[in-house]
Each structure stands twice: as C-alpha cells, then as structure tokens.
C-alpha cells in the first residue's frame, strides 16, 4: 500500500553563531533551503508537527552561548550554530506513528523554530483539548509553561495568605501578569513594576493590580518600595534580579518569601550586579527559592483544572503580543530582553 | 511572718557605650557597686535567679549598637549603656513566687550578665531535669539554643538525605560542631571549615567529620570547595556569610539547600561583602532560608527527646570553652568574633 506524501519547503530560524551579550536579529538566519516530507518514517514512533505558535522565553539566551557557557546545562540542551533554535510551542500533528497522538491532534511542548518538525520521541508533549473560546496560542503562555511557572512559583513556593503584600517585577510579562492576578485571587495586596507607562496602566486598569509603577522613572528603588510597601513585602515574585532584588531584600517582612522565577536583568551582562543586602535573608528569616517550570510538570493537570474555569469565565485575563511570520521571530525574541513586548511574546509561524 | 533575707553584692557586666565595629573588652564595665535582696518582691510572680553559666552568642553584638542600628529589632531588645547585657544562661532559682518554678530548680533561658537576676515574667525559661552525667553548662549550648539551632536549622530547613554532601562553615563552633555530627547520623558526607589547624584536627579526629580544612590557609575558596566537593554540595549550613557564601553558591548542586544560621564575617564591618553569585539560586534551583532559633522553641521538647540519648551514650560530643569568672566575660565574648574560642564559648559566673 502506498500513498502520495506531500513534500514541502520548511522555513527555519537557525542560530548563526554563539551569542555574546544580548541576542540580536543578526545572530539568526532565516533559511528556506530545505524541504521536508510530511510523513513519519517507517519504524519510528514519532510525530510530524506543523508548528503554529512559538513561545519567546527569556531562558533561551543561555542555550545560545556555546557548550561551555550554558548555565542551565543539565536542564536543557544548547543550540548549535547552523541548526534551528527551539523552545515551547503549539503544533498540529500532521502525521503520527505514536499511539498517544493522531493526525489532527493539537499539542504543546518542545519543538523547533521552523514550520515543520519531526519529533522522534514526543515525551514532553501535552495533547490540547481544543475549545472554541480558548486561543491555541494560550498554550505557549497562560496554559503552557508561563502559566505553570506562575502557578508553581507563586502557590508552591510562596504559600500566599489573605492580606499579604506581594511585589511582582516584570509584572506585565508572560508570568508576572498571572502572578498578580493569582495574588488577587488569594486575597493579597499586589504591586507590580514594569518598564513603560502603558504597561503600568495595563496592570492597574486591566489586570487588577492594586498598584504599579514604571521602574524607569524611579531614581531610588529602595525608596520606591518603601512608598508602596510602608510595612514591608511578604512575597516577592522575582523576575528581574540584580538591583531590583537588592532593593527588595531590605524591604521584606519577617518570614517573607522570595520566589526566584528569573533574573532577566542579569542574563546578558558580563559582570553580575553585586548584591549588598543578602544579610536580610538572615535577619528577616526569609526563604529565597529558585526553581524551574520543569519541577512543576507533574502538577500540570492540577494547574489546568484550576486555571481553565477562570479563563473560560474571563476572570483571569492574558495579554499576548503576537507577531506574525516565522521570519519575524528573531526580532520578537530579541525584543523581550529590552521589554519591547507588551505581554507574552508569541510568534505565529504561518501567515493567515 | 517574716524571715531574714540575705542581701548580697551583685557583680554585673554593663555595656559602657554603644559599640562600633567588633565588640572589645573596653566596651564593657565590670560593676560591683550594687546589692540585691535574694527575694522575689511581694505581689510579683517572678523568680530570683543565681546565674551559673552564660552563653556567648554572636548575635549579641547587634543588641549593642543603639536603638537605630539593631538589625534584629523585633526579635530581641537592645542593650542600654550603663545597664547589664544579657543573653541565654543557666541559673539556679534562689526564690520564686511563680507556680512553675520553685527554689532549688535549675533553669535555662534569658537572663542578664550578672550574678543574680530578678526575672519578673519567666516566660522564656525551661526547667532543667538535672542529670549527674550531664553538665549544667550544656544548657547554654548543646541542650540550649545552640543545639536547638543545629537541630532546627539542619533537619527542618535542609531535609538531609543519606549520601548527600554537606558543608559546614565555622564548623567547630557552638552550632557547627553539632551540625556535622547530625549530618553523619543522617548518613551524609560532611566537610567543615575552621580557622586553625587545631580546630581542623578536632573536626576530623574527634567529631567525625569526613574532612575539614583551615580556611585561613586557602587562597581560593572556590577551588577549595571544588577540591572537597568535586560533584557539588547538597547542603550548606551557613555560619559565616560574605566571601564564604559567595564561594559556596556556584558549588551547590541542583536543588541544594542553604540554611542561613549566621553570617558572622559580616556582623562587625561597615560595608557588607558584595555577593556576586546569587544567580545560582535560580540556575541550580536552590533554597536559601534564614531563621532564628526562636522559630524552633515549639519543637524544643522533641529536640531534647532526640538529643539526650545521644549525649548520655556519648554518641554526640560537645566541645565547650569555659572561662571562669563573670569579670572574664567581656574578653571571652569579644573573642568569638575572631575565633579565639575552641568550641562553644561559655562564661562560668562564679569561681569554684
């Protein structure tokens, strides 16, 4: 039995060279030179994916630094110059020889930045229960790693209690915007920081933060935090690190919790900002904890059960910044390190 | 009904002035000018204590800095120039109008650095179950706050598992020497650092540490830790802070735990040592937690039940450095900041 199988061009985003400093558009190449047969090879139990949405995540820069400099080695595999970069994405199954997936399924999980990807071992992929009121792109964000990060990093690490004071840095970002809304659900008071007045407006007037400020307009972050938290911070959801974390530490309350989701200000600089206030971990008996979303994959079903009703009832909002066309991916990705994105940065692979 | 009540001279250690930098002998005054009536006043439900042993604890320096500079405000009350300093001690009840204590009882808890102390509200005092094989001085250390610190800070914070690698700084000190022994009981591999060859010898040959080093002889602490922990550290019991903590961070293993018991290297300097390696909290998904022994008072009975059999069977050893005479207290206390003590520093109030 034979059948005609389509062979198509496959556009990719390739890493041009190991990066040094912040990722730039010129660190990537858009290639359209290869073709792919839309069929899983005989003898494989893989899947062939048509990629629809790709997630721009800050940690990806670590995988572009070469084999020696990957600080996340052990968790993720680094990228190689000349080969496609990868990350979390939403895809349609075009062909499958895997018993867990069939043609026409939609999945989210690890994929490559290209139009079609053959995945030989689809182990870190979740099947999407498609719902007409839920955009598929949400599975790169609120219903994917970003949402799970906000959920695990806030509820599991911070153990929030009603009335507690919460600070979220990079608060309009993929994870921060959810942490603020989770904090409100938990009965907390929440203040966010962001890098533009438009983002501050979003936080205060759309996402329900009690207050927010534009950190670029503040001269003295310690004084700023004292203004918003005169009695101190119970929970810091840390996305920024560096000077932000250093200003947070002396403003923490006794037995405060610092959930270290990211330190984006420190990712692309040669010399880390020195921290001067670590002593407050002792004096205020703080818990500071780093984690990876990988740690929370086992609770993904529990998370989904929690979040879906809120999404369907529009009780939790999610702001996405979707750029169309794989060829526009490098600019969108590079932009997240300077805050060019407005909400979760997503790349829609195909044009409508 | 009346009785003759003894009136005695009462020697004190007074704070002479708020301190600046490390405590020095000249920051204290030995006073023998006052007398005390060895009787609890009518209408009080306090106790009159004869102090036997006083504990030299590193945190006391914070209470000598004046009302503005006490970093521990909220936990402890600062000392006042001209008044006695205080801390944890072992005392005999000389008179009591409190239903929980009677004349002749031995207690440990907060007292003042003087021969006799009237405590109007003996709320933070534990009655000692006197045992012929247990020195009373142990209740300033292994059976008091130091032991409870080691127990809570190691078991509650670090959740040690068999085979894990443990690093203890200031390892021959009041708390460190116990953490090392607890680590061995838990089946861990434990390396300690200390400030003299004699202390290193104690750790390796008396207290059962797997290895130990003299940090004063090491040029590059990062390289030192890599030598002793080629595959990384699971648990860091932090007593020193500053450069020690900064060297520990990049040497931690994934999901490592850092229990912050103290940062003695940072207590008496104007400018804190900057920390350059905090990013490893994120990349290695570390938990770093500060705490106070106060947090563990509720589990003191459980701790005592755990530790007493080991003490009686000599399966856990405890090294004390006991100086005799209240008048020698200031020198003994000041010495702990430069590591002059060999083991737990105790002041025996009265001469034999």
TrEMBL record, chains A, B:
Gene3D superfamilies: Medium-chain alcohol dehydrogenases, catalytic domain, NAD(P)-binding Rossmann-like Domain. It comes from the Eukaryota. It holds the Pfam family ADH_zinc_N. Residues 174-307 form the Alcohol dehydrogenase-like C-terminal domain. Keywords: Oxidoreductase. One of its GO terms (molecular function) is 2-alkenal reductase [NAD(P)H] activity. Residues 11-121 form the Oxidoreductase N-terminal domain. This is OLC1v1008243C1. It comes from Oldenlandia corymbosa var. corymbosa.
């Amino acid at each position: 039995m034979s059948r005609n199988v389509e062979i198509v061009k496959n556009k990719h985003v390739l890493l041009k060279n190991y990066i040094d400093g912040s990722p730039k558009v010129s660190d990537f190449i858009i290639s359209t030179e290869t073709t792919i047969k839309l069929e899983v090879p005989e003898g494989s139990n893989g899947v062939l994916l048509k990629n629809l949405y790709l997630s721009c995540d800050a940690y990806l820069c670590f995988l572009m630094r070469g084999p020696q400099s990957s600080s996340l080695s052990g968790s993720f595999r680094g990228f190689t110059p000349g080969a496609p970069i990868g990350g979390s994405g939403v895809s349609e199954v075009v062909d499958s020889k895997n018993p867990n997936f069939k043609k026409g399924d939609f999945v989210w999980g690890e994929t490559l930045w290209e139009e079609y990807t053959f995945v030989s071992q689809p182990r870190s992929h979740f099947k999407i229960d498609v719902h007409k009121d839920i955009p598929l792109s949400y599975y790169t964000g609120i219903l994917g790693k970003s949402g799970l990060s906000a959920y695990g990093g806030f509820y599991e690490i911070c153990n929030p209690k009603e009335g507690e004071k919460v600070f979220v840095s990079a608060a309009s970002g993929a994870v921060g915007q959810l942490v603020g809304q989770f904090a409100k659900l938990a009965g907390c008071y929440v203040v966010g920081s962001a890098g533009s007045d438009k983002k501050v407006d979003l936080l205060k007037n759309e996402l329900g933060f009690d207050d927010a400020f534009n950190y670029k307009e503040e001269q003295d972050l310690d004084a700023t935090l004292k203004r918003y938290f005169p009695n101190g911070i119970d929970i810091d959801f840390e996305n920024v690190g560096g000077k932000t974390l250093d200003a947070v530490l002396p403003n923490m309350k006794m037995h405060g919790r610092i959930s270290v989701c990211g330190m984006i200000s420190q990712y692309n600089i040669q010399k880390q900002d020195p921290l001067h206030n670590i002593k407050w971990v002792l004096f205020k008996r703080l818990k500071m904890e780093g984690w990876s979303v990988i740690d929370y994959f086992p609770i993904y079903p529990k998370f989904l059960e929690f979040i879906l009703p809120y999404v369907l009832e529009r009780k939790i909002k999610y702001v996405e910044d979707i750029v169309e066309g794989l060829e526009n991916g490098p600019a969108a990705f590079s932009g997240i390190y300077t805050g060019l994105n407005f909400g979760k940065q997503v790349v829609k692979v195909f044009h409508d």
